[in-house]
């Protein structure tokens, strides 16, 4: 197992805990809102950040683990067709993820490298009551997840030597 695969698996396992944290945040929000009539301003944005982290690293995790969904009934009986199908899916994935990496970098760059008229750093904000800079951080997170996923796909395209 390569370092990149171990990294993707670790990130996937760690980000899976984000979904447990969402449950805790939502339980707190419901108790605060309906039990004490004191809703939070941060619960919604925090749950979006946590879910995004889980989903962003999920693709790379599945690629590293080899558990992506496959429709295998067409290729089960023909190994040559399976190899062709695998090669075509890796090529299509590399093309798609290359475009997604480029687009997510452009979005992250525009969201992060913003400055006010006074020269202070002013990243893109949510516009909610909390008005946090989470959208800019999520765009960076998307870029990082796409790059890891793309590198895993490219790694799978390189034939491995048996030791």
Question: Which terms summarize this structure?
Answer:
163 residues, mainly alpha
* Distance from first to last alpha carbon: 13 Å
Main β sheet profile: none
Number of helices: 4
Overall, the morphology is: globular
Q: Mean pLDDT, as a whole number?
A: 88
Oligomer: single chain
How many structural domains does the protein architecture include?
Answer: 1
What would you report as the Rg, rounded to the nearest angstrom? 20 Å
- Hey, roughly how much beta strand do the residues contain? under 5%
Q: Please provide the count of β strands.
A: 0
Order of helices and strands: HHHH
What proportion of the residues is helical, as a percent range?
55-70%
Strand pairing plus helix content: what structural class?
A: mainly alpha
- Identify low-pLDDT runs: none
Walk me through this protein's architecture:
The structure is a single chain. With 163 residues, the chain is mainly alpha-helical. It has one domain (3-69, 80-157). Helices cover 70% and strands 0% of the residues. The protein is built from four helices and no strands. It has helices at 3-35, 43-65, 79-112, 134-157. Helix 1 (3-35) packs antiparallel against helix 2 (43-65), helix 2 (43-65) packs parallel to helix 4 and helix 3 runs antiparallel to helix 4 (134-157). It is globular. The two termini are 13 Å apart. The mean pLDDT is 88. Residues 22-158 form the Tripartite ATP-independent periplasmic transporters DctQ component domain. The complex comprises the extracytoplasmic solute receptor protein and the two transmembrane proteins.
């Amino acid at each position: 197992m390569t370092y990149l695969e171990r990294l993707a698996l670790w990130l996937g396992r760690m980000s899976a805990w984000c979904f447990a944290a969402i449950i805790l945040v939502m339980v707190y929000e419901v108790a605060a809102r309906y039990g004490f009539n004191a809703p939070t301003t941060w619960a919604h944005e925090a749950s979006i950040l946590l879910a995004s982290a889980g989903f962003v690293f999920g693709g790379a995790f599945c690629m590293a683990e080899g558990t992506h969904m496959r429709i295998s009934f067409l290729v089960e009986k023909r190994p040559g067709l399976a190899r062709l199908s695998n090669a075509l899916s890796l090529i299509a994935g590399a093309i798609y993820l290359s475009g997604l990496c480029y687009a997510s970098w452009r979005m992250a760059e525009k969201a992060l490298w913003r400055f006010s008229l006074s020269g202070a750093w002013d990243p893109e904000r949510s516009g909610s009551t909390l008005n946090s800079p989470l959208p800019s951080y999520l765009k960076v997170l998307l870029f990082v997840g796409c790059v890891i996923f793309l590198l895993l796909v490219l790694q799978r395209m390189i034939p491995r030597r048996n030791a």
